[in-house]
Amino acid sequence: MTSTTLATAVRVEGLTKRFGSFTAIDNVSFTVEQNKIYGLLGRNGAGKTTIMQLLTGQQFATSGDIAVFGENPVENAGLLQKICFIKESQQYPSSFMPKHVLASAPWFFENWDADFAAELVDEFRVPLKRDIRKLSRGQLSAVGVIVGLASRAPLTFFDEPYLGLDAVARQIFYDRLLEDYAEHPRTVILSTHLIDEVSNLLEHVLLIDEGRILLDQDADELRGSASTVVGRAADVDAFVAGRTVLHRDGIGGLASVTISGLSESDRQAAQAAGLELGPVSLQQLIVRKTSGLSAAEWSQNS
């Protein structure tokens, strides 16, 4: 399915959010298409959680427009029934047990699948009758993940709730997300620092830094947009002269340089010069991107 045939789940135009003199979100505009998995990526304090709070009506914008399924999310109970927002520090009533969380979920999510939730409880080994305050961090994270998956909300946000899970549980989450997404398409937005772990899930990347959108790009295009050139320092320097360098390493007479925007003829020229070309992972690319290259420089060279 091409992007021209996909409906819009979220449209943001000129969005700004200030907290006193601090600008958390700075005049950003983007769209989120329905039935795709998005990665909302960025460093700590970049503005990821603030954007999600704005999209779910938990914060008021200072200026700009937000439309979620064509409606303003603020004080819109009907719209919020279509949204599930799961965060790392998810709060529940202190008297609750996990069984109470799952029993109350159908009140909030019209697509709730209790059978699917029960399967996930078994897989994540969640003790249903333990006081929510006595759960380990991993068990509490699992409760949030189960709600997010079994809600099957048309727009689902995961704000790093899986950080508390161990590696095995995180893999279960990724696998179940992909499997259920294939059977029940919806729009999913993942905010995470574990970029390498989720890179194969993502169809589109929104990269935010200091409250501004640096990248808004198809994930497959992004994965192939940079390469590492390795060889003798003099040969590497000659090859990358005039190009946008994202990162440079060197030892002795050897150099390793990450650059963007190589054409097929460029690759052939590199090989003819005796240079080795290597792929750059999505995480490496994001790290390079948030280490100083401006959005204008990136867009001109990607």
Structure overview:
The chain has 12 helices and 13 strands. Strands 5-6-7-3-8-9 form a 6-stranded mixed sheet, with helices on both faces. Strands 11-12-10-13 form a 4-stranded antiparallel sheet, sandwiched between helices. Helix content is 35%, strand content 29%. The two termini are 24 Å apart. Residues 1-5 and 293-302 have low confidence and may be disordered. The protein has helices at residues 48-55, 77-80, 98-108, 114-124, 137-151, 167-183, 195-198, 219-223, 233-240, 264-272, 282-289, 295-301, and strands spanning 8-19, 22-33, 37-41, 63-68, 83-87, 155-159, 187-191, 204-209, 212-218, 226-232, 245-251, 254-260, 276-279. The protein has 2 domains: 3-218, P-loop containing nucleotide triphosphate hydrolases (Rossmann fold), CATH 3.40.50; 222-301, Alpha-Beta Plaits, CATH 3.30.70. It has 302 residues and is α/β, with parallel strands linked by helices.
Average pLDDT value?
Answer: 89
- The gross shape turns out to be globular
Number of domains: 2
Share of helix, binned: 25-40%
Distance between the termini: 24 Å
Count of discrete alpha- or pi-helical segments spanning 4 or more residues: 12
Q: Identify the CATH homologous superfamily of the largest domain.
A: P-loop containing nucleotide triphosphate hydrolases
What's the helix-strand series? Answer: EEEHEHEHHHEHEHEEHEHEEHEHH
Do you know the CATH architecture of the largest domain? 3-Layer(aba) Sandwich
DSSP strand (E) fraction?
Answer: 25-35%
Spatial arrangement of strands, main beta sheet: 5-6-7-3-8-9
